[in-house]
Write a structure and sequence with these properties.
The protein has seven helices and seven strands; from the N terminus they run E-H-E-H-H-E-H-E-E-E-H-H-E-H. It is of the alpha/beta class. The protein binds flavin mononucleotide.
């Protein structure tokens, strides 16, 4: 099995999603010894955001050096994604959505004609047969009250992945990470239990 590991927390060693992503990978490696993996960490090594200077490298024909550099990054990220059987994503909630580092990755891999195509019935994913495991971390609650409505993280991720045909998505949820220690620990224990049950 080939695993693509994408972390995107900016909280370094204190990151909860990064720690749980590590546990997911350990679980996968135990189930499939000899698996290979490729790692990206957008929290410590971000890819450049889209700008007027580089966007044509991804969404048109590259011409300038900057545009060619963007096309090169996009090709590399897509080839890592294509080669993966399983993608493990660490996705902390920042300002009710995903981190800008992870959002940038989507800007580079969502390429019409490459990872999805347009059809009369809407976008059609060109990447199929992959499993995605997302570790979603959140300071507040996403399972009750107003927090449910203010979750622009999980539905958004499902949608972006689905456009490329990545529909086999499992979410591991670590919520209330900024609550009192006992609440936080109970939530982390539930997340760890969900990881232990991963096939
Ligand atoms: C810049 C920033 C913005 C955040 N925004 C939210 C938010 O909108 N809602 C929320 O519930 N928690 C928010 N949090 C808390 C994080 O979701 C929480 O600390 C989570 O555990 C982060 O995952 P990580 O430890 O892997 O980075 C925010 C944290 C940071 C650093």
């Amino acid at each position: 099995m080939n695993i693509l590991i994408l972390n995107s927390s900016v909280l370094g060693d204190r990151s909860i999603s990064r720690a749980l992503v590590g546990e997911v990978v350990q679980r996968l490696m135990r189930a499939s010894p000899g698996s290979t993996f490729v790692r990206r960490d957008f929290g410590s090594e971000p890819i450049p955001h889209l700008t007027a200077a580089n966007v044509a490298g991804i969404r048109a024909d590259p011409d300038t050096i900057t545009e060619h550099a963007a096309r090169h990054i996009s090709d590399e990220l897509i080839s890592e994604l294509r080669a993966a059987d399983t993608v493990v994503i660490g996705a902390p909630m920042y300002n009710f959505s995903i981190s800008t580092g992870l959002r940038s990755w989507f800007d580079y891999v969502l390429r019409a004609g490459v990872t999805f195509s347009y059809s009369e019935s809407g976008p059609k994913g060109l990447l199929t047969g992959k499993r995605v495991i997302v570790v979603k971390s959140r300071g507040g609650s996403c399972s009750e009250g107003v927090g449910r409505e203010l979750d622009f993280q999980e539905p958004y991720l499902r949608h972006l992945l689905g456009i490329m045909g990545l529909t086999d998505v499992t979410f591991i949820r670590a919520e209330m990470t900024n609550y009192a220690p006992d609440v936080r620990e109970a939530s982390l224990a539930a997340a760890r239990q969900a990881i232990a049950l991963l096939a």
